[in-house]
Design a protein that fits this description.
Layout lengths: L12 E3 L3 E3 L4 H4 L2 H4 L4 E3 L5 H4 L2 H8 L7 E5 L1 H11 L8 H4 L7 E5 L6 E3 L2 E7 L7 E6 L4 E5 L6 H7 L5 E7 L7 H7 L4 H7 L8 E5 L6 H10 L5 E3 L9
Parallel strand pairs: 2-3, 3-4, 4-5, 9-10, 10-11, 11-12
Antiparallel strand pairs: 1-2, 6-7, 7-8, 8-9
Length: about 240
C-alpha cells in the first residue's frame, strides 16, 4: 500500500514486486525502481482514485522494445481507459502508439472467476457490486492467498467463493463511511462498519481482515466504529507498509 501512512487518498497495491492492483498512486507514490519491476497491472474499475496515475506509471516504465506492462481489466474498464484517459486529449493514446517492436502497454480483458497466471501466482477476478462494474482480486501462490476487495456493497457471492480457498491468509476489505452515513453508502454502494462486520462473518477467525478505502474526511469515526466491533482479526490498513502473509 502506497502513500501517507494514515490516510488512504488513492488506491494502489504492489504484490511480490511483479503484480500491481490499481494505479491510483502507483505512478507518484512508489519508487521508480519498484515501478519498473511491475509486469502486470490489474484494474478493479475505472474510478479516478484507482486509475489516477496510470498514465504517469506507463510513462515512467516505458522502455523501447517489445516487453511492456500488461494492463488487465474488465471490458468496461478498458473501454474507459481507451476513450477517456489514453485518448490524445487527456493523455497521449499509448495504445495506438504501441507497436509489436515497441509497446507502452498491452491490454487483457478479464473474465469473472477466470484465473490469470502471473509467474508463480494466480490472480482471479471476483465480481463485486458497485455503481460501475468492478472486480476484487484473489491473489494466490502455492502456500498463501490474499483477497483485495475494494469498492463494494453487500456481495454474498465473493464470500462464498473465498470460503472455498484453503490457504486464505488475509482479506483487504473496504469500509468507506461511518455508520451514520448509511444512506450515502447505500447510494454509492460502499460499506460502513456495520455492513463490514456482516460481510466478514463467514470468515474463519484466523483470516486477517484489513480495513481499506476509508474516506479521509471520515477516518476517525470509521476507525472508532470498526475497533468498537471487538473483532480480534480486524486491522486498520496503513499505507507505505509492507504486509507479509
Amino acid at each position: 500500500m502506497l502513500g501517507e501512512t494514515r490516510y488512504q487518498y488513492l488506491v494502489s497495491y504492489v504484490v511480490n514486486d511483479r503484480i500491481a492492483v490499481d494505479a491510483g498512486c502507483l505512478g507518484f507514490g512508489c519508487p521508480l525502481a519498484t515501478q519498473k519491476l511491475v509486469t502486470d497491472l490489474f484494474l478493479s474499475h475505472c474510478h479516478l482514485d484507482h486509475v489516477a496515475t496510470l498514465p504517469i506509471f506507463l510513462d515512467n516504465v516505458f522502455e523501447q522494445g517489445p516487453e511492456c506492462v500488461i494492463v488487465h481489466g474488465s471490458d468496461e474498464t478498458l473501454s474507459v481507459l481507451q476513450q477517456d484517459i489514453l485518448n490524445d486529449r487527456l493523455w497521449p493514446d499509448f495504445i495506438s502508439l504501441s507497436t509489436p517492436d515497441s509497446a507502452f502497454l498491452k491490454l487483457n480483458e478479464l473474465t469473472a472467476l477466470q484465473p490469470v497466471p502471473v509467474g508463480e501466482m494466480l490472480v482471479t477476478p471476483l465480481p463485486l457490486i458497485h455503481v460501475v462494474p468492478v472486480f476484487g482480486f484473489l491473489i494466490e501462490d502455492a502456500t498463501s492467498a490474499v483477497a483485495i476487495i475494494s469498492d463494494t456493497h453487500h456481495s454474498s457471492g465473493v464470500w462464498q467463493h473465498l470460503a472455498r480457498v484453503p490457504n486464505l491468509k488475509a482479506v483487504l476489505l473496504e469500509c468507506s463511511f461511518p455508520d451514520q452515513l448509511d444512506w450515502l453508502a447505500d447510494k454509492a454502494l460502499h460499506l460502513i462498519p456495520k455492513s463490514f462486520a456482516a460481510e466478514i462473518q463467514s470468515l474463519p477467525a484466523s483470516v486477517r481482515v484489513i480495513a481499506i478505502h476509508i474516506k479521509p474526511a471520515w477516518y476517525e469515526p470509521v476507525v472508532d466504529q470498526l475497533l468498537a466491533l471487538g473483532l480480534p482479526n480486524i486491522e486498520i490498513g496503513l499505507t507505505g507498509v509492507e504486509y507479509q502473509f
